[in-house]
């Protein structure tokens, strides 16, 4: 029953790669989300327009289309630039875009748009009186953000942030279409070779569920941490 015909170790490595893609993409998405939220709340109209276009376009295009567009489109653009450079300077360079990097950047870019809306909503939920009081005390903008705004934003943002993380985790399976050997791609190749799909895909399901279970525990801890001092309604 547990004979994986020599594919077990490679699928196990694929699970680690999936986690790497998920964690790095999430970090990029959170960073872009914070920047996007601040841009949408900015007093400058140009920043609000750029952020609005970003969140609207990204959320309106299927993730798979964006993944293929960025991976193949970016390679074409890079090739044209490199060819121009080779012709101008008589060199023979070639740049092949890395599938892992593309997968992380694309997923991070996609979920950054969702995170921007999550953080924007969380920011608007924070009492403006507390920020005004901090300004009155002479606190700098950075200190206000770290000491007052961010902790309270996280309390409101965590439900949406956790939901985005769960969806992002499942979206990592898309990296298999650009040639990255994650556990989904490896399980598909193994099941195709030995014609036993359940033997290889059920472990993949178990790994995803295990990550989800651990994520729920971590999110519950963070909710308790950022809800200290607040009474449940």
UniProtKB/TrEMBL annotation:
Pfam families reported in the protein's UniProt record: BPD_transp_1
GO MF: transmembrane transporter activity
Segments forming domain ABC transmembrane type-1: 15-219
SUPFAM superfamilies: MetI-like (SSF161098)
PROSITE patterns recorded: ABC_TM1
Membrane-topology annotation of the record: Multi-pass membrane protein
Subcellular location field: Cell inner membrane; Cell membrane
TM region positions: 15-39, 64-85, 97-116, 156-180, 200-222
GO BP of this protein: amino acid transport
NCBIfam families: HEQRo_perm_3TM
Family: Belongs to the binding-protein-dependent transport system permease family. HisMQ subfamily.
Protein name per its UniProtKB record: ABC-type arginine transport system, permease component
């Amino acid at each position: 029953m547990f004979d994986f015909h020599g594919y077990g170790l490679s699928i196990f490595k694929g699970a680690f790669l999936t986690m790497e893609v998920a964690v790095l993409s999430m970090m990029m998405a959170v960073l872009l989300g914070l920047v996007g939220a601040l841009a949408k709340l900015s007093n400058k109209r140009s920043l609000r327009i750029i952020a609005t276009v970003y969140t609207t376009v990204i959320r309106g295009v299927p993730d798979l289309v964006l993944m293929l567009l960025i991976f193949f489109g970016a390679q074409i653009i890079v090739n044209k630039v490199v060819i121009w450079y080779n012709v101008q300077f008589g060199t023979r360079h070639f740049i092949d875009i890395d599938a892992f990097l593309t997968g992380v950047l694309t997923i991070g870019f996609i979920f950054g748009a969702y995170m921007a809306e999550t953080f924007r909503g969380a920011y608007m939920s924070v009492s403006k009186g507390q920020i005004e009081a901090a300004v009155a005390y002479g606190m700098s903008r950075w200190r206000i953000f770290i000491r007052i705004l961010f902790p309270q934003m996280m309390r409101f943002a965590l439900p949406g942030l956790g939901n985005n993380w769960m969806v992002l985790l499942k979206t990592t399976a898309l990296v298999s279409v650009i040639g990255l050997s994650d556990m989904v791609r490896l399980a598909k190749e193994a099941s195709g070779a030995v014609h036993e799909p359940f033997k290889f895909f059920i472990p993949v399901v178990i790994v995803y569920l295990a990550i989800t279970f651990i994520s729920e525990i971590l999110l519950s801890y963070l909710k308790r941490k950022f809800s200290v001092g607040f009474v449940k309604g």
